[in-house]
Amino acid sequence: MSLRTAARDALANPRAKAGSVSELLPGVLLCLTITVVAAGIQSLAERSFGHPYIEALVLAILFGLGLRTVWQPSPRFQAGIAFSAKQLLEVAVALLGATVSVGALLASGPALLAGIVTVVILAIGTSYGICRALGLPARMALLVACGNAICGNSAIAAVAPVIGADSKDVAAAIAFTAVLGVLMVLGLPLFVPIAALSQDQYGVLAGLTVYAVPQVLAATVPVGVIATQVGTLVKLVRVLMLGPVVVLLSLLAPLLPRDGLSTNRRPGRVSFFKLVPWFIIGFLTLAGLCSLGLIPGAAAKSLTQVAGYLTIVAMAALGLGVDVRVLARVGARVTAAVTGSLLVLVMISLALIYALGIA
Questions:
Q1: Are 339 and 184 in contact (CB under 8 A)?
Q2: pTM (two decimals)
Q3: pLDDT in tens, 85-131
Q4: For 254-262, which contacts have Cβ atoms below 8 Å and span 24 or more sequence positions?
Q5: Helices 199-209, 213-220: inter-axial angle, 10-degree rounding
Q6: Nearest Cα to 350, choosing from 201, 220, 136, 186?
Q7: Tens digit of pLDDT for each residue in 158-179?
Q8: How many CA atoms does the CB half-sphere of 85 hold within 13 Å?
Q9: 116, 148, 172, 309: which is deepest, by most CB within 10 A?
């Protein structure tokens, strides 16, 4: 899949990609097959050793990545893989709200809320500076900075029309973010033993650094329920920063340098549902009902189990949809800029955790 195709797919209407059941079935069945194998290996490890050394969720990503490296899924599989990676994972995130109390975030106090806003602002500024220092065009630098600081592909897709970004810059930013997003899901849990992080600390770290809301779920589920709840809530606050950032950029867009590497298309408008995706609204709605005690415990448990199964299926799809060889195609400057920006974001986030004394 080319970078231009990746960008077009990411910016396309999800419903248009879903297609009919017959179009979805081959790709969904492929993801389910990987899920069954991953779950079977986890179950075998649990029976043999008492606990799994690698969760089914992580195995599903690895199997998907491995298969994608040696085999390019044909077009008949693409619709089902895209549906599993996006719609099914968004449903899982929405269902997770049934076990989360909004009061848990509010109880953390204004310091954490202010800290999240500060991290986003610092991350955008430092990332933009790194990108410009490495010679990236101003608009691509903003795409990378906003994707890194807020919510990956969703932020890139929302910011691109506002600043009039060139399609090839959008393609490179989205393609690289897709790869790094998977690597973050796999690698971030290593910080738990390395930095001796508690579940609360790790949840905040994941919520502040992982690109997409669904990926936060994937990165925190293996660590624990508390990490998942804290990470998701922190990430939702971070995502809500997208609206103010897009509004600000729409005002600043005419002042951006006219780089020779960009066509500088005329800035456009972004709809409300690009700024606040439906699954975030669903998550907050269920979280509100849970906070009011309107969701029975048994129902909440069942919804959590369904969300867990859907997440594994989606992780298999995520692995199948990412070609790690894309790292070699986007160029050394983009690679250095995005990687450097991500490392800075992790350091800022860890500094916030220790500054606030989160235990």
A1: no
A2: 0.68
A3: 888 878 887 887 787 666 655 666 688 888 999 999 999 999 999 99
A4: 256/138, 256/139, 256/142, 256/163, 257/138, 259/137, 259/138, 259/139, 261/137, 261/140, 261/166, 261/169, 262/137, 262/138, 262/139, 262/140, 262/165, 262/166, 262/169
A5: 150
A6: 201
A7: 788 778 777 677 767 776 777 7
A8: 26
A9: 148
